[in-house]
Fold:
Amino acid sequence: MSAETIQSRRAWLLSDRPVSRLQARLGRAYVAWRRFSANRLALVGMLIIIALLVVAAFADVLAPYSPTVGDLKNARLLPPGAAHWFGTDDLGRDIYSRIVYGARWTLYVVILVAIIAAPIGLLVGTIAGYAGGWTDTILMRITDIFLAFPKLVLALAFVAALGPGIENAVLAIAITSWPPYARIARAETLTVRNSDYIKAVQLMGASPFRIVLRHIMPLCISSLIIRVTLDMAGIILTAAGLGFLGLGAQPPLPEWGAMIASGRRFILDQWWVAAAPGAAILIVSLGFNLLGDGLRDALDPRSGDQ
Amino acid sequence: MSDTLLDVDDLRVTFPTRTGLVHAVRGVSFSLGRERLGIVGESGSGKSQTGRAIMGLTPPQAEVSARKLAFDGIDLLSISPRQRRALRGNRIAMILQDPKYSLDPVMTIGRQIVETLRTHEKVSKAEARKRALAMLQAVQIRDPARVFDLYPHEVSGGMGQRAMIAMMLVTGPELMIADEPTSALDVTVQLDVLKILDKLVAERGMGLIFISHDLRLVSSFCDRVVVMYAGKVVEQIKASELRDAQHPYTRGLLNCMPRIGFERHPLPVLDRKPEWAE
Amino acid sequence: MSVTENQAAAGGGSARAVAILSSLGRFLVIAVTTYLGLLAVTFFIGRVIPIDPVLAVLGDRAPTAVVERTRREMGLDLPWIEQFYLYVKAALSGDFGTSVLTTNPVMTDIRRVFPATIELATLGTIIGAVIGVPLGVLAAVKRGSLIDQVARIVGLIGYSVPIFWLGLLGLVLFYAKLQWIAFPARLDVVYEYTFTPITGFYLLDAAIQGQWDVFYDAWRHIVLPAALLGYLSLAYISRMTRSFMLNELAQEYIVAARAKGLSERRIIWGHALRNAAVPMVTVIALSYANLLEGSVLTETVFSWPGIGLYITNSLQNADMNAVLGGTIAIGSVFIAINLLSDLLYRLLDPRTRVG
Ligand SMILES: Nc1ncnc2c1ncn2[C@@H]1O[C@H](COP(=O)(O)OP(=O)(O)OP(=O)(O)O)[C@@H](O)[C@H]1O
Ligand SMILES: [Mg+2]
Structure:
């Protein structure tokens, strides 16, 4: 590709008179990307998340040992070394392999919570914002009530009643994390509700249901994505906390929080059993936080503190 | 010219931005005695940046240069920031546009006035309070003792701007820069505030730089007028001779002013030529 | 409901009285509905989700007679709404049932363990605020500088680190290797018997009684968990402080303060921070509430006998009454802090101050 074609492509993207919707959209994405990629920390965050995705996808290839079956006779609690990069645990399992497979469970939790909680928040927020009046008052009161609860403790109580397990942990986290999304969706809805563009759609006879679904919800998506990304770290930490307390993933699942819990018994002598999974949690949460910060700054220049 | 209070020669203010250098002020020169000088020009012409450069309030990322920038013989660009600060609020003062934003919302008006005073003069608390009350009286606030203890949000815009004037004049400065001091106010109180300012300036023999985009106001209020366009001075003229202004931009500004009794259709549009900015 | 009543009652009074009463009324409505909401959720968790709530409360080893009696006591044969009414009534009088594990009323247990948590969270918040506020201010004032970058990284790690893991590593380093701190507990065993707490805050109690050896021992036990919680709170507080300060420093009144010739120090700490302090009170209060909650994991790691450890111990023993009682206790304090911070905000900001 010659420099000239690159130049003309950029001009096409940055054109202030886009001829098609696609060009406008690509142009906007390009500008956002330039702002995003100028932020080095955000790029680091993105790399971490991409690495997480790759590791989860190719766990079978990347992990030299089984995540669940160990060599009890010869390989118990070995320190990190050439054969076992991060050492082995009390059941003789390779910790590196378990962490690699654990990436899948981390993604599982994060994605599931996001696809349960975000739509609930979106629905509650857009309905409240569009309907207004009593509907708004009641829905937002409920949202505020949930917002005033201690999330982790409530999730604990939920899991206590539902029974331990990773699915129940996901459910409990999702139940406690939708309210901020409702707030955001409502705020966005309020800003567009009285716009001429929504008025025009109303005049054309669209039903409220259709207006909310087709015209208002799409507008809330970008701020919602930013917020969900920023929340991912919190979700991971809560899930790991539940796992650590024995309420999340159950053995022998290689979930990172549960791995720390099982390493706790040997912490003073075989510190590496707990150290590696914790570092994995730290790195991935950090990745989501950096990515979320970067996205917010790139897509929402209003909140422009760096 | 022992009477010269402020001497500005070839003042430049440049902002580095992502898209390159922005030249906000590009070689402004004028001098000022104990008189009233108006600076007019359209929005973005560099009036405020000129005023702020004299005050030493240019944002840190910007670059200020001048062949000469002297106040009462003191070279402002070569003295230390500390000495500069000692001048600010003491011998050179500035009034900002909107009292709603330029007074600290969580501090009472009285304390804000006292603060200026005690920053520059060693006076006791009681003495400072007395002088602040006297100053409030001087800006024609009828009930100074009450206003002293009020928070900025508890007073009207006109009252707030008087408090602002009191806050800046309490140290008895020799030069006052007023950056659109009335344009945020209700028209009904604009004139009151201007009269107070006018009286104080006259009584105390201060120099005044009055920044505005209202040419008529400036011409009736000031002795001399500097007309700015795109960071440059395009014309300097006595206020009384404004009707005979030569520069087309000044004439344009004059033409834009509505006059009673004249039908104006279509409304005149301000002419802008790139060569004026050369 | 109470808003209109209050307003009607104040009808003849001044506008200011009406304003005070109506904001007080609003405050009460919010407090009551939020607390009812908390009770509704715990009711749902305790009575609706479990297939047999009695078994959830008693465990499956209880004799049939006890099961039957409890079933009647809990009113499980009544309609939901009536059950909820009885539940709320009991909860309001501080009756959360009996703990299977300790055989005490849950409320008694909570009274016993709560001071330990309060002590930990308070110390943590103090650490977080004392370091976090100046750090945030410096980061904002020297925006983009090295200290800003460091504050940002320190904050981001605080947002991303699993605290229980950091606690474990801290134990390895400071307890096992360096031996700077004492083992996980509240006091050494020797003092457990010789020391009589008054308030339940050991540091305070030891200081009051002049038992400085106990004070030193208590300090050696609390310092690491408090520092960890302090780190979490520091991350949050410094980040918010920075953002509030950036916002304030961009205001016109800062330009005016410079025009007055004030020193940078006076402008930053006397004007900008004073303005930022108003929203920051809310942030510090919220951070305190978060630490109460964060104590669940920290207390587990450090065997700290507070409400968090109480809840997790009860969880492991399927002691549902204790779990829900603990949840309500933390939830109530959490809600109270939330509401109080809102009230405090109004009091501190002259623009919203009523009266
Ligand atoms: N922080 C900044 N960064 C970059 N450019 C700036 C900055 N501040 C001001 N400028 C530029 O300086 C120029 C002059 O601004 P200035 O505020 O002096 O205008 P003005 O004449 O006071 O206009 P107005 O009547 O609107 O107050 C503007 O064109 C603006 O683009
Ligand atoms: Mg201006």
